[in-house]
Amino acid sequence: MADTNIIPTQSIRRNAGILRTSLNFFLLLRIMGIRSILAKPFASLIDKQTRQWSLQPVAFQERIRRSILLKAAQTQFGKDHHFNELESYDDFKLSVPVKDYEALKPYFDLVAEGKPDILWPGKPTYLSKTSGTTSGTKYIPVTKDSIPNHINSARNALLSYVHESGNSAFLDDKLIFLSGSPELDQKGGINTGRLSGIVNHHVPAYLKGNQMPSYTTNCIEDWEEKLDKIIDETIGEKMSLISGIPPWVQMYFDRIQARTGKKIKDVFPDFSLFVYGGVNFEPYRVKLFESIGKKIDSIELYPASEGFIAYQDSQHEQGMLMLLNSGIFYEFIPADEYFNERPTRLSIEEVELGKNYALIINSNAGLWGYSIGDTVKFVSKNPYRIVVSGRIKHFISAFGEHVIGEEVEKAMKATMDQFPEVELVEFTVAPQVTPKEGLPHHEWLVEFANPPSDFMTFSLRLDEHLQELNVYYNDLITGNILRTLVITPLKRNSFIEYMKSQGKLGGQNKVPRLSNDRKIADLINKYSID
After folding, report:
1. To which H or E segment does residue 473 belong?
2. What is the strand order of the sheet 423-432 is part of?
3. Residue 522: which residues within 8 A CB-CB, separation 6 or more?
4. φ and ψ of 374, to 5 deg
5. Contact 203, 138 (CB under 8 A)
6. Which among 282, 209, 288, 281 is positioned nearest to 256, based on CA atoms?
7. pTM surpassing 0.70?
8. C-beta atoms surrounding 354 within 10 Å
């Protein structure tokens, strides 16, 4: 649904009344089957609204830019950056620099102290707590105006699926969301917690009755204890939708299989839809579907504490629909220019297909010129669809090769396609600059559920695919500056044990796919198979 700060078309105003009526029906009618019946006209309405803004993306993005600047003009940030004098996008770029969390931390600290009118009028409704890199814990504001972006986007992703597939039966059965604790703390008088926990407080009432796990179980902080309780509650239930970050969903599946000795399809025969986000699904796809035991539909989401960016709107098209009418004005910096002193900044109408861009957001949560840290690539411009290609700071360039996450994941997938017996749990990659013997190389620390039958050939094919994807890496190999990659196989549950040792087991936490140093690699290496 369009953000309330955006001036909607008359048709959207008319549809808003229909939308509220539809929601009221959901709340009133609890008869078995009624959710799935009413979901279809509601999904049709949302699809109509989506097509309206997706056909006019540039106009809607400009409306958002003007609207959020106007509303934030009297905030401290707005005054510091002369918002009331900015007319064009060029004016905006000259006045508002691109910064990451660390660079904007003085403003965020004031917000977290409870000071009003810093980045957005008043105080935020929530602070979303997430792990930082150099700044420790980050506190991202979630405002009254930005909450619809998080809540409606997740809802619309499901309704988009209902509209395209005609499948709405899953709404009548049990739905599980593997997420962080919904318990909130206070910081500066503001409710504070993990984004998934905050969102849990806004699950629509018409879904509360079939949402799992229970609130009490969801509040358990210890991930392994929580997982056992979730299994206790869900085994025997009519589960139709399971949602979460793939590695933690896999852990849930593994424990169910260990307890029951059955495939997931036999434990949950009505399981028909998997919803995921947070990581590239491809490295986990084979093992997840092997655990499930049948092919089911899936929906990819791109949520972040800073905003809900995109969702998969089609089972037949590549990429996720970028949400260009949801309170966020986007900018894009060519990834290879990101660390330049004056990088190029582009609006949505200026992007090109197939290029990697660092994603910059300006939003009604009070984020301005904010570098979210991700890189995206457009796979369609009609409508605008993206894939997440990596993290701007997650790369290997110890020798100038600049290998990115997208490349190592594509190389791994291509190699696994040649070795169908291989099942992967997790992997991470780091440079080995000073090996005990031989040339420097890239070390791939890999936990296999089922290893390759010919380990040496698998390693060579993996290296060949990476060379095909990255010409600089190829030059270093052929020039004998680097040797071919080395795979270090890891013991079962190595990544679980590593994440547990870091206090990051479960929830929204992820292992970086690759690093330009050995901080993570050296810690994980102790789990290697001798």
Report:
1. helix 471-478
2. 423-432, 441-450, 486-489
3. none
4. -95, 155
5. no
6. 288
7. yes
8. 7
Residue 36 exposed, middle or buried by CB count within 10 Å (0-12, 13-18, 19+)? middle
* Maximal CA-CA distance, the chain: 71
- Tell me: the pLDDT tens digits for 387-397? 998 888 777 88
Sequence-distant (≥ 6) Cβ neighbours of residue 136 within 8 angstroms: none
The most confident of the ranges 472-476, 507-511, 523-527 is 523-527
More confident residue, 283 or 374: 374
Specify the 3-state DSSP secondary structure of 492: coil
Compute the CA torsion angle 514, 317, 301, 370 (nearest 10 deg): 70
| DSSP for residue 485 | P
Range scoring the smallest mean pLDDT among 151-155, 239-243, 275-279, 503-507: 503-507
- DSSP structural state of residue 308: E
Asked if residue 524 lies in contact with residue 490, where contact means CB atoms within 8 angstroms, the answer is: yes
Q: pLDDT tens for residues 16-32?
A: 444 454 444 444 444 44
Spatial separation of the C-alpha atoms in residues 111 and 188, rounded to whole Å: 8
Instruction: Measure Cα distances from 270 to 157, 230, 273, 296 in Å.
Output: 20, 18, 9, 10
> Which residues are within 8 A (CB) of 415 and not within 5 positions of it... i.e. 6 or more apart?
422, 458, 461, 462, 465
Structure tokens at 93: 């770029």
User: 408: closest CA among 359, 455, 444?
Assistant: 444
Tokens of 333: 């910096």
Report residue 524 as tokens: 């994980």
